[in-house]
Amino acid sequence: MLALVATLSFNLESASAAENxxxxxxxxxxxxxxxxxxxxxxxxxxxxxxxxxxAWQNLNGLWDYAITAKNAAKPAEWTGKILVPFAVxxxxxxxxxxxxxxxxxxxxxxxxxxxxxGDRVLLNFEAVDYHxxxxxxxxxxxxxxxxxxxxxxxxxxxxxxxxNELVLRVGDATGGAQLRGKQTLNxxxxxxxxxxxxxxxxxxxxxxSAHLTGVxxxxxxxxxxxxxxxxxxxxxxxxxxxxxxxxxxxxATAEGKGPIKLAVADAQLWLPAHPxxxxxxxxxxxxxxxxxDAVKSYAGIREIxxxxxxxxxxxxxxxxxxxxxxxxxxxxxWPDGLLTPPSDAGxxxxxxxxxxxxxxxxxxxxxxxxxxYYAYCDRVGMLLWQDQVSGGTGKERGxxxxxxxxxxxxxxxxxxxxxxxxxxxxxxxLKAMMDELRNQPCIVVWTPFNEAWGQHQxxxxxxxxxxxxPTRLVNIASGGNFxxxxxxxxxxxxxxxxxxxxxxxxxxxxxxxxEFGGHGWPVPGHLWNPDMRNWGYGGLPKTQEEYEARYVKSxxxxxxxxSKGISAGVYTQTTDVEGExxxxxxxxxxxxxxxxxxxxxxxxxxxxxxKR
Length: 612
What we know:
Layout: E1 56-58, E2 61-69, E3 80-84, E4 103-111, E5 120-125, E6 128-129, E7 131-136, E8 139-145, E9 151-154, E10 164-171, E11 183-184, E12 192-193, E13 197-198, E14 202-207, E15 211-221, E16 224-233, E17 239-246, E18 249-256, E19 260-263, E20 278-285, E21 291-299, E22 304-308, E23 314-318, E24 321-323, E25 325-330, H1 344-356, E26 361-364, H2 371-380, E27 383-387, H3 420-437, E28 443-447, E29 449-450, H4 458-468, E30 473-474, E31 477-478, E32 488-492, E33 510-517, H5 544-563, E34 566-572, H6 596-603
Parallel strand pairs: 11-12, 25-26, 25-34, 26-27, 27-28, 28-30, 29-31, 32-33, 33-34
Antiparallel strand pairs: 1-14, 2-3, 2-4, 4-10, 5-9, 5-14, 6-13, 7-8, 7-10, 15-16, 16-19, 17-18, 17-20, 20-21, 22-23, 23-24
Helix pairs in contact: 1-2
C-alpha cells in the first residue's frame, strides 16, 4: 500500500481559482470561522477518520453551477461559481439562492486523474441533499437518494487521459415523505431555511483492485476484546491483519478471514473523563502475505447498558457504572453555512464549549453531522444520542396519512399509515446512518422518531433497530408516541422539565426528559433577522438576571426528578437558530449567554457521575 501513496495525481483546476472569483453573500450574519473561509481552505481535512487512506484528493473549492427547470438537460451555459461544500442557499456558497422543488441544481468541474495501472478511482460524496445523479465525461456513473449520508462511485472506467468533466445534478423537494429534519420551504418558529445540493466534502481516493471497503468494530469490556469484521471487494479469499496500539505502544495483533478478535490486556476503557482510543492498522494481505491495501482506524473499548437502582428504577450504565446523561439538544445549524459548519475548527468549538460547561452528552437533533464531528466527540469524550433525520409530516406539518395523532406518553397512541415505498426509503436511510456511524464509541443511543414527526410502524422499527445494533440503547420516540419497544421512555416538557412518574407501564424503561428549557434571551446585534418573530419557550425574559434565574430553576427541577428516577435531561439548546433564541450561545457563536465555567459549577448538583 505504501507504494501507492504518490501515484495518484489530479489536476484540480477549480480548487486553485483566484479568490476574487468568489465572495460570501453580502450583508448576512457570519461566524468568525466563516470570515476565514476561502476557496483554498474550504474543508480541507480528511473526511473519514475511522477508515483513513493516504492516497486521496480533496475536490472542495469552486465549481461551476446553474439552476434549471427540474427535467431540463445539462446546461449549455453556467451561471457562475459555487463554493463546495456549502449548500446553494448558504452565505458561504457565494450564491445564496433558494432551490425550488420544481428545479434542478447542476454542478460542473474538470479534473485530470492518473491512477496507477490496475487501481480503481472512487468518487466520494460525504453528503448531497437530496437526489443526486453523477456523470463523468457524459457517462452516468451513479445515482443516490438521501440527503444525510455518504456515498461513493467507482469512476475508473469513465475516466480518460487528460482532462475529464465531472457533472452533478441535484433535486430537492424539501417536502412530502422526504427525510429533511428541520428544513422547510417556509422558515419560521422551529423550522429553518432549506439546504440543497452538496453540503459535505467531495473527494477522490485510489484503491487497488482488491481492497478494503469497510469494517465493523464491536468491543466488550469483560473480557476486553476488540472484534473487527472486515468488508472486502475484489478478493474472494482475502486475509486481513489488524494491529492495535495505545499511545504508540502495540498491544495486540491478529489475522484472519472472518471476525478478527484482539484480546487487550490491562485495557484502558473509554469514558467521558478518560476517552482512551486504541489506534488500529488494518491490512489486506495477498496469498504471499503481502499488504496490498491498508487503512487506519481506532476503537474505544466501552459498553453501554442499563440496570436498576436501589429504588427499582432503570438507569443508564457505562462500563457497568451508573450514568446520568446530561446534555443539550444540538441542532447543528450555522448562519453562514446552514447545515454545513463553516470549518472543522468552528464545528469542534461547539463541542469544546459544551464539554467545558459540564455536559457529558449531546442529543444530535434530527441531523447527521460530518464524520469528523463524531471523531472529535470520540477524542474528547462526549457521549451522543443520535436522532434519525425526520421525514414525512409531523404535528405541525399536517397530512393525515403520514402523521399520527401526537399523544406524548399518554396511552393508546396511533401510528401513521405510510406507503410501502416511503417506508422502504425511510428504512434505507436509517440503515445508512447506522452503518456510517456504527463504529463511533461516543454514540450510545439511537432515536428513530422525534415528537411523532413521521412516526410509523413504531414496533417494527424499534425491534429492527434493536436487532441490528444490540450494542446500543434505543429511544424509540423522543417526546413522541410511546410504544413498549426499545429501552427508553422519553417526555418533552417546556419550560421546566417533567415526567409522568408513578406509572407501572414505564417500569421496564429508562425514564428521561428528552427536551426541556428553551429559555430565550435576545442579544442585540446578534439576531438572524430582527424583523421576524424572535422567541423562546415561556416568553422572553426582561433581564439577563431573569434569564439566568429561569435556567437555575429548571435545573433544580431536573435535580429533583433525578432523585425520583429520571436518568437523563436534555436542555434546549446549544445555540440560537434563526428566530429561535433559546441557545446558550447566539447563532453566530459570538456571545456566550452564561459562561461555561458558571454552567459547569451549576451542573455539579447533578452529581459526580456526570464527570466520570
